[in-house]
Every structure is written in structure tokens, then in C-alpha cells.
Amino acid sequence: MIKQLRPAATSQHVMQMARDLFEREANTLGKVGNHPQVPRLLDYFEANNEFYLVQEYISGSTLQQEVKRSGPFSEAGVKQFLSEVLPMLHYIHSQKVIHRDIKPANLIRRSQDRKLVLIDFGAVKDQVSPERLGASEQTALTQYAIGTPGYAPPEQMAMRPVYASDIYAVGVTSLYLLTGKSPKDMEYDPATGEILWREQVHISDHLTDVLKKVLDVSVRHRYQNATEVLRALDLEPYLDSLARNMVSQPNHRNGRPLPHSGDPNEPTSGSSPSARMAAAIRARQAAKAIADPQQSEATAIQPGSPRRRTMVQAAHSLTTLNSRGSAGNSATTVPKPSAEDLLAAYAKGKRDFSNYDLNGLNLNKTDLSSANFHQAQLQKTSLQGANLMNADFGRASLAQASLKNAKLARAYLSHADLAGADLRGADLSYAHLSNANLRSANLCGADLTGAKVSDEQLATARTNWSTVHPSGKRGLW
């Protein structure tokens, strides 16, 4: 998918402001795009005074389309929705990002695996220290895309969004799922501004109480984060089973299954018009870079480093995307490949190995960085010394896998089963290990600096004096 920003004027001041806003959004997308339910940012660039974001294409139906096609959700359906969207929101907030435009039209149920994907981060706003911004710049940054009226709470409409603002939007989305009515079609209390929704839904008192607090117009009385909502719903212990049900079974509502697209000709990221358009744009830019390297360097955006990679190098990422898209999104059930087949596919640009059976393969010292092994089977697989940085192992089974000295920096391992895994000397710095099973995992000498993991999880694993704490300190827990 390609998103284009075309400034209203081409004066130096306007162009610089547009460039700053564009780079801010690209950097934010780069931070959050390492989650399996957020589209990855593939590239971004400037061409002819216009700015382009190239993101992973997501094939599927939005929740708005589902409701219009099949009718409102049941209470169980809304709880399933909350059990999947709230952990995703927790991750986004952990990256210090506020989405600011959560609504049914921005949540797609991906055709490939039936998982919800949150799209359109055009309204995102980094957490910015007021001390570092003057009032005029703050106004310039927040006057763009403050969200969708009705889904955005009062503090966000006043340009003061907080994490709890996204919680409110999730609540209004839940009302839409339950009633099929958008906020503009609902009545409001003129004195408080609260949505008058309770007579329009037939749900348990428990869910009513939770939604009441989610939808409180006072940000101080609202749930402050996604974890608080999950705890109130008593969903924390059941997240695994709920997520498995959503992936492995059709989503039934009022006795009717949701339509599921099994069309193998459905467009993928590699064959979509946006991917072809991006390739054409980048080809022109690559030609310009070869013809006039100085001009290319002058117009290339520089996200935090003195020199951005050239347009020729960047065009390679789109070639990789095309290979990946054509190879990785077609089948629900995949055969078990050999180690050689897997590495050959990776070398050709394929990155999606979700749900693959990779049990027992020997992948020692291989480079599989940024690959997607979501829900893959990797029991007793040998990955000693492998480069797995930024890889996605969410809900994957790595029981008794050998990951000695593996590079797992910033890997996503949420809800992964690592029982009995050998992680001696592994680099797990800034890895996301929330809710991972670490029982009897060997973490002796592992580096967990900055990792998202609880003391309770680590208490079930084996550690020694050379294990590095998430705080950066060495020693036993």
C-alpha cells in the first residue's frame, strides 16, 4: 500500500514542515511495525516535492464491512475482539505511540489467518516533551488528523491525546460492533457529552460495567491502559485460547459464519497496484540517482543518520517485497520444508513462514532476521548462533529448541512456548517476551537488557551469575 503526502504549497517553509511531519510519521511506523498485527513500513521517500510511504498490503475485510455484511456482534464476539485488540494496543503504547484513530474501518481481519490488523497510523503522534517544543510547533504538529469525531474522546479533540484516548476509541468501536450504529447515529447526554448506549445493547452486567468505565468522558475516571481493561474483563488467563479460536475456526455470529475469502487470486503485497506503482516510482528515482547522485542525496530524507541509503539501494526493498508477497500469502496449510528449502526461500526474499512446521530442522548459524514465524512449530529445532533479530515468534512453539548464542535482539516472542529451550548466551536485548512460557528454559549467560519480561516468568527459568537482567545488571534473580 502506498500513502502519498502532497504539500499544499512548495515554499521552503511549507516543504520543510511537510518533510518534518512525514519523517515523524515514518519513524513512528518504523517503531510499531515489528508487531504481526501492524503493517510493516517497507520504505519511504521523497520525489518531486511529494512524499511516499510504502507499507505492507493487508488483504481482508474491515470490521465495518463485517458488521454491514453480517450484522452486529454478540457479547462473546465483542470479548473476542477485545482479547485481540487490547494486547496489540498495549504493544503500541509500549512504544510510546498513540494511534488516535481506532475505529471499525481501521481494523482489518486479514484473510490469510483471520487475525485483526490495525491500519492507518496517519494520525499517530509520538509522545513529545513540551519542554522540547515551542507552542507554535506543537500546534503545527497536532493540527493534522486528530482522529474521527465520535470515536475520539474530548481530550483528544482538544489536541491533548493520552494513551487512555485510544481506550475510549476501542470502547466506541465495541458499541458499533454490538449495535451496528456509528457514534453520529447515537444520542448523547447534552449535559455530560456521554453516549446514551445502555438501552441499545443486551449484554451482561459485567461487560456493561467495563464499557461504562472505558467510555467515561472524564479521562481521569477511565481505564488508563489496555492491561487494566483486560484485567477487568477477566480475559488475561484466557488470551491464548481465545486467540487460537479466532485463528483456527470461522468466526460465528448469531449462528452465521463470517464469509471467508479463500480466493488464491486475491491480491497480495507483491501483486497489488500499490506495489507496482511503488516499483515504478522507485525505478524512476533510481535512474535519477544514477544520473545525478548529488540531487538524489539532496532530496533523500535522512531519518536520524547523516546519509540515507541511496534510492538504488532502497529500490531493492521493493524487489524483496514483490518476491515475498508472491510467495508467502497463499496457503492455509503449508508442507514441512527442508532446511535447504527454507533458506533458499529466504534468500529469494520470502519472509513469511507463519504456521509452518519447522520441527527438528538444523538451522545453526543461519541469517533469518526479520522473518515471520508467527504460530510456527519449531520444537527441538536447532538455531544455535542464528541471526534472528527482529523476527516474529509470537505464539510459536519453541519447546526444547536450541537457541544457544542466537541473536534475538528486538525479537517478538509474546505468548511463545520456550519451555526447556536452550538460550544460553543468547542476545535477547529488548525482546518482547510478555506471556512467553519460560519454564525450565536455560537463560544462563543470556542478555535480557531492556527485554519485556516479568520477574514471575524469569523465576521459572534457569539463570546464573552471568545472566543480564532487563535492568542491565548481572546476577541471579
Describe the structure.
The chain is mainly α. It has 3 domains: 2-56 and 267-325, Phosphorylase Kinase, domain 1, CATH 3.30.200; 60-257, Transferase(Phosphotransferase), domain 1, CATH 1.10.510; 352-477, Pectate Lyase C-like, CATH 2.160.20. Helices cover 34% and strands 7% of the residues. The protein has 14 helices and 10 strands. It has helices at residues 12-32, 63-70, 75-94, 135-142, 154-157, 163-179, 205-214, 226-232, 239-248, 273-291, 293-299, 311-328, 339-347, 455-459; strands spanning 2-5, 41-47, 50-55, 60-62, 97-98, 107-110, 116-118, 125-126, 252-253, 256-257. The strands form 4 sheets. A 3-stranded antiparallel sheet has the order 1-3-2, with helices on both faces. The protein has a 3-stranded antiparallel sheet with strand order 4-6-7. α3 packs antiparallel against α6. The longest helix is centred in the N-terminal third of the chain and has 21 residues, at 12-32. The chain starts with a strand and ends in an 18-residue tail after the last helix. Mean pLDDT is 77; it is low at 126-145, 237-274 and 293-333.
